[in-house]
Specification:
The chain is of the alpha/beta class. The chain has one domain: HUPs (Rossmann fold), CATH 3.40.50. The protein contains 7 helices and 5 strands; from the N terminus they run ααβαβαβαβαβα. The chain has a 5-stranded parallel beta sheet, with helices on both faces. The longest helix is centred in the first third of the chain and has 24 residues. About 35% of the residues are buried.
């Protein structure tokens, strides 16, 4: 009872705990929306060794790789990619994303003596992991001695590329990551963009999936994901395999 004999009424928030739950969910949702892009588009460059560029990335992001290479202490810029769906030998167009990326870099004036192209055979899944395995195979075959491998990809794909590349390359190399510009949508407004929402959610789901996949496949050797010895799986652009240094 109150001092005047009235029944004490607790504040509304104490009467309705659902409001607290709703407020908590809203806070978590705001935190998720404002931080998830930065979490996925991680940047942790090492700035030396070789710079590996995923060939499927947009032209704007690919152009950034030239600046990254020139500002670091890299030996080679390596483009890696598999077949482009719907292209053939008779089309006169690039048949793989590695071919396409290499052609674009040449047009930008990049030094072809420092450009390596790795074509990856078609795979139904694990394309990022397979590409990283081919990079390791090239490093081993060529005798190229480096301490570090930086991976450059597009925006929110970075976090997934990073964990898969570290898995495929094993403990032989330090692996860094560079999230290039996201060309298909404005990162600041991804929640109000249908394409932005789809890309962010898809890459978040992919990261979570492969995080658990790696956890349950720790006993499997990364060599299980190495490229096969098919003659066409590795190709070098306009130069022989570089000698070890």
């Amino acid at each position: 009872m109150g001092i005047w004999g009235n029944r004490y009424e607790p504040p509304l928030l104490f009467k309705a705990p659902l409001l607290w739950v709703t407020a908590g969910i809203c806070v978590l949702l705001i935190f998720f929306v404002t931080s998830i892009y930065g979490f996925l588009a991680v940047n942790h460059p090492l700035g030396e060794g070789i710079l590996v560029v995923e060939g499927w990335i947009p032209a704007k992001t690919l152009a950034e790789s030239v600046h990254v290479f020139n500002s670091g202490a890299y030996q080679y810029l390596v483009v890696v990619g598999g077949p482009i769906v719907g292209t053939g030998a008779e089309s006169g167009h690039a048949r793989t994303y590695a071919d396409l990326a290499a052609s674009r870099l040449e047009q930008l004036g990049f030094d072809t003596n420092k450009l390596i192209k790795i074509n990856v055979p078609p795979v139904s899944s694990e394309r990022t992991l397979t590409g990283a395995a081919h990079v390791k195979r090239w490093l081993e075959r060529s005798g190229t001695k480096v301490c570090c491998v930086d991976i450059l990809t597009a925006g929110v794909h970075a976090r997934k590329s990073w964990i898969l590349s570290r898995y495929a390359l094993g403990g032989s190399y330090r692996v860094g990551i560079i999230a290039g510009p996201q060309a298909s949508f404005d990162p600041k407004y991804w929640p109000v963009s249908r394409k932005g929402t789809w890309i962010v959610v898809r890459n978040l789901a992919g990261y979570v999936y492969y995080k658990f996949w790696i956890l349950f496949n720790r006993k499997a050797s990364p060599r299980d994901w190495q490229a096969t010895d098919q003659g066409e799986s590795l190709s070098i652009l306009e130069n022989d395999i570089p000698p070890g240094e």
